[in-house]
Amino acid sequence: MACSKFQYVKHFEQPHDLLKNTFIVVRIDGKGFSKFTNAHGFEKPNDDRGIELMNCAALSLMKAFTEIIIGYGQSDEYSFVLKKSATTYSRREDKILSTMVSHFTSAYIFNWCKFFPDQELEYPPTFDARIILYPTIENLMDYLSWRQADCHVNNLYNTTFWLLVHNNSDEDKTSQEKQAQAHEDLKGTFSKDKHEIMHKFGVNYNNEKDIYRRGSILVRQWNATQLNKQAKKEKKRKSKEEEKKEETKEEKQDITTKKKPEIIQDKEKSVIIVHEDLVDKMEFYERHDLFEKLK
Ligand SMILES: Nc1nc2c(ncn2[C@@H]2O[C@H](COP(=O)(O)OP(=O)(O)OP(=O)(O)O)[C@@H](O)[C@H]2O)c(=O)[nH]1
Ligand SMILES: [Mg+2]
Q1: Which residue's alpha carbon is nearest to atom 29 within ligand 1?
Q2: How far, in Å, is the centroid of ligand 1 from the Cα of 165?
Q3: pLDDT, tens digit, for every residue of 136-165?
Q4: Ligand found nearest the CA of 212
Q5: Which residues are CB-contacts of 122 (< 8 A; sequence separation ≥ 6)?
Q6: What is the CATH number of domain 15-220?
Q7: Is 76 annotated as a binding residue?
Q8: What is the pTM of this model?
């Protein structure tokens, strides 16, 4: 009786289901990381420990959520792409968003001491998150291109900026003043000007590490069951093609004696990390079989 009196409040909850047949992108971003990275002595402009910790947290998330096919990370942000047919939490927005950002944050904190053994966490880092739905693969590819182009632009700026600051030998200037000077020097400069400035200091931007220039891409691998399914599908497709061509007896023979797909050890949760160029690069998606995996 007492319980039923209160039950009506449940109806105030408004769960929202994400539109079917769309790619779900979850983007997580560090809150106030300009302050957080300063407070924890991160190297400027890129701290390998910080980048590896972000990648470790992302990997942990991708191991927990097997419908995430791609992760893309740079600076203090990570995007995760779920396949179009994903059914994680029945596509409930609040569950997906809150659980993923919570998992990422706790993995970041849980693994902190592995990457920063000499630096205590001064206060708990926080991440925000949003969900964006993309209806077409082209939209999704443009989204990832946009994030990687952002990484490139920011890294080009930051690399030049810190080179100017670190090479400013004016002893009367404080670090703050040197930074203000570098900002001033870079105002209105184009990409080619920044390359020239770097060149003056003997730095060739193209030799900077790929992980800095392009960020990190985590790509899910096929598991054994999927691989075998793929191989069968491919075999079927090929034999259909052959039928159409009215192949010769010899060709038929070749197909029927073709080796059975190899049984590969189950690597259900395996993910690889690459630092490739994906801006407008169809071949990136083809090389990693992403058109199939993202279906
Ligand atoms: N030194 C250093 N700083 C980093 C590194 N990666 C990220 N950051 C800092 O993190 C910031 C990320 O940018 P934003 O997300 O726009 O800034 P934010 O302070 O986190 O602000 P909000 O996201 O709006 O809360 C950069 O501007 C840097 O200050 C790194 O490897 N080294
Ligand atoms: Mg941030």
Answers
A1: 34
A2: 18
A3: 999 999 999 999 999 999 999 999 999 999
A4: 1
A5: 39, 40
A6: 3.30.70.3000
A7: yes
A8: 0.88
